[in-house]
Design brief:
Pfam families: Oxidored_molyb (PF00174). This is Oxidoreductase molybdopterin-binding domain-containing protein. It comes from Actinomadura keratinilytica. Keywords: Membrane, Transmembrane, Transmembrane helix. InterPro entries: OxRdtase_Mopterin-bd_dom, OxRdtase_Mopterin-bd_sf. By secondary structure, this protein is of the alpha+beta class. The protein has a single domain, classed as Oxidoreductase, molybdopterin-binding domain (Sulfite Oxidase, Chain A, domain 2, Alpha-Beta Complex). Helix content is 19%, strand content 25%. It is built from 5 helices and 10 strands, in the order H-H-E-E-H-E-E-H-E-E-H-E-E-E-E. Strands 2-1-10-5-6 form a 5-stranded mixed sheet. Strand 5 and strand 6 form a beta hairpin.
Length: 240
């Protein structure tokens, strides 16, 4: 991040990233999966001219690369942080960390794959499965999609309602057995396990149920709206 750390959310300062650059990223990323960090470093250098604020791999980062679409993301304290959920729902509300903890908890372990090529294997996540959160607010029969907003003030993402109801899509509050850190998108972030990292929006602040898919930050700059890893069509096993 989509959307830093672990995600794919690099942002151009100034001119948007064009389709040719995006396709080049994807192509180089595929090579990066096969041959490792040296290619991933070349990908980063290739992207630098378009203004993406790409940061180096941080010490003890566990293989994650940290990106952000703004120069500085405000920090939110877990004690006061809230996620607003609204749109086409019966009971709009906001959820604090204690509210999320009171909902059913889902744990899963998945590889985290960035579209630019790097991957971190066997990342342990925990939080609220998005279907459980949607059930808590009551989704309208008119709903077709779900839109997500980062509290960085710039990054957005969307899923179809069918995708959002997968059990491997989480509002994640824990990562690798600890609270999600700020650099990893905490206090809460989205995890869309079967898709590339740019779908897993960091610094989650708002969820809106909508009547259509609203293309997100990177989709408006040429990325695929449906970002299944390996084009699996999302038919991989989901957690219970």
């Amino acid at each position: 991040m989509k959307g830093g750390v672990d995600v794919d959310d690099m942002e151009p300062r100034g001119a948007p990233v064009g389709r040719r650059v995006v396709l080049g990223m994807v192509g180089l990323g595929a090579v990066g999966v096969a041959v490792g960090a040296s290619v991933q470093d070349r990908v980063s250098r290739t992207l630098s001219p378009v203004g993406a604020p790409i940061q180096d791999v941080l010490p003890a980062a566990g293989g994650f690369r940290y990106y952000s679409v703004v120069d500085r993301v405000p920090r939110r304290d877990a004690a006061s942080h809230r996620i607003t959920v609204g749109g086409l729902v019966a009971r709009p509300r906001s959820f604090g960390m204690a509210d999320l903890a009171a909902l059913p908890q889902t744990r899963l372990t998945r590889d985290f794959q960035c579209v630019t090529g790097w991957r971190v294997q066997d990342v342990a996540w925990a939080g609220v499965a998005l279907p459980d959160l949607l059930d808590a607010v009551g989704v309208s029969s008119r709903a077709k999609a779900v839109r997500f907003e980062s509290f960085d003030g710039a990054y957005t993402e969307s899923l179809t309602l069918e995708q959002a109801r997968r059990r491997d899509v989480l509002v994640a509050t824990q990562m690798q057995g600890a609270p999600v850190t700020h650099d990893h998108g905490g206090p809460t972030r989205l995890l869309v396990a079967p898709m590339y990292g740019y779908k897993s929006l960091k610094w989650l602040g708002g969820i809106e149920v909508t009547d259509r898919v609203v293309p997100g930050y990177w989709e408006r700059r040429g990325y695929d709206v449906d970002a299944w890893v390996g084009r699996s069509n999302g038919r991989d096993d989901a957690p219970t």
